[in-house]
Amino acid sequence: MTETDREREPVEGYLEGYAEILTGVCAERRRLTRDEREALRSRGERAAEVGIGLRVLVRAHLSAAQGVLPEVPHSAVGHLLSAVEQAVDAFAEGHERAQRLAIRQEEAARREFVDDLLYGRSDLGRLAERAVRFGLLLSHAHAVAVARGPEPYDDGCAVTRAVESSLLARFGDRRILLTTKDGRLVCLAPADEPEVLAHFAKQAYAATDGGQVAVGRAHPGAGGVVHSYEEALNALDLAVHMDLDAPVLHAADLLVYPVLARDRQAMADLVRTVLGPLKEARGGPKPLLDTLTAYFDTGCVTAQAARRLSLSVRAMTYRLDRIHRLTGSDPGDPVQRYTLQTATVGARLLGWPDQPL
User: Fold this and answer.
1) Whole-angstrom Cα distance, residue 200 to residue 13?
2) Rounded CA gap, 80 and 86, in Å?
3) Torsion region of 241: left, alpha or beta (phi above 0 gives left; psi -120 to 50 gives alpha)
4) Which of 128, 129, 261, 354 has fewest C-beta within 10 Å?
5) What pTM does this model have?
């Protein structure tokens, strides 16, 4: 049996009565009836549902029409061609309709899986089974990266497609999941392939026109995916509070901040006690708090901090001396510096002085 014969076998059932329709159309010099077209659409849908390709089916319809052609009077050949066109069009419409429905169902299943995966709402065993369908092995450790940009993104937008194309071109199918959630790009990759998330971060930063990417730590199991995802989200939130403008943030590098923020009341007491006296400064505490932030962020290098604040070194030194006099803590003293720096971080986390403690 030739390859053509093997292809013809599964489609014969979808051509039943087709030759008779063509013969009747030519004999009666008419167009296909509504019922005939609907029957062809239904056959097209069923063929798509069992996975028969449209190219094979169209070829079979044309071949069947050739078989009818010798029996058609020369004057009715035009009707035959018109009938074949209508029939193929109706059949293809049904086939495409079924394909669109299958795509929508697949997208819905994928979206439901992503939501359950990132929220941890589903039974973990069942979730792991569903993950296999999308090429993931949740028994292994995974890490999640989240990218945000100036606008929200969805699965079909140009930014998502560009990042996905780059990942596929570089890594192929390596158990990677790229999706969107709440307007952000989300990439899930195995923990033993950190280069995937590094590439994702680079491409997402470029595609989102300078957005920001956060990478959670790797954790095992389905619950570990949720944990890593939440770490990445928390890192992005932390970047807002702490004015962290690095293009890529790693949750592992920011673990001290959740620790400091865990006891909010204790942190608020520290900020009030250590930095509260800055309220007595002319212009309020904000300029002096910005001074401390710049000073600590530059590694306590006065000249570099002054440049960051567009101040002279003399003005910067005056501000540091003013802070010392108001708070009683010297930013230049290694022991007292730690207390001041911790209180400064706490103020940024709590939004002080804009937010009351």
Assistant:
1) 48
2) 10
3) alpha
4) 354
5) 0.67
Which residue in the block uniquely carries the two structure tokens 């066109």?
85
3 state SS for the chain: CCHHHHHHHHHHHHCCCHHHHHHHHHHHCCCCCHHHHHHHHHHHHHHHHCCCCHHHHHHHHHHHHHHHHHHCCHHHHHHHHHHHHHHHHHHHHHHHHHHHHHHHHHHHHHHHHHHHHHHCCCCHHHHHHHHHHCCCCCCCEEEEEEEECCCCCCCCCHHHHHHHHHHHHHHCCCCCEEEEECCEEEEEEECCCHHHHHHHHHHHHHHCCCCEEEECCCEEHHHHHHHHHHHHHHHHHHHHHHCCCCCEEEHHHHCHHHHHHHCHHHHHHHHHHHHHHHHHCCCCCHHHHHHHHHHHHCCCCHHHHHHHCCCCHHHHHHHHHHHHHHHCCCCCCHHHHHHHHHHHHHHHHHCCCCCCC
Between 54-68 and 3-11, two packed helices, what is the crossing angle to 10 degrees? Answer: 90
Residue 111: which of 54, 182, 170 has the closest Cα? 182
d(CA 147, CA 240): 14
| Tokens 């993950």 -> residue | 131
User: What phi and psi values does residue 16 have, to the nearest 5 degrees?
Assistant: -60, 125
Neighbours of 214 (CB within 10 A): 28
**What are the tokens at 55?**
């190219």
Q: Residue 222 has which token pair?
A: 């389905």
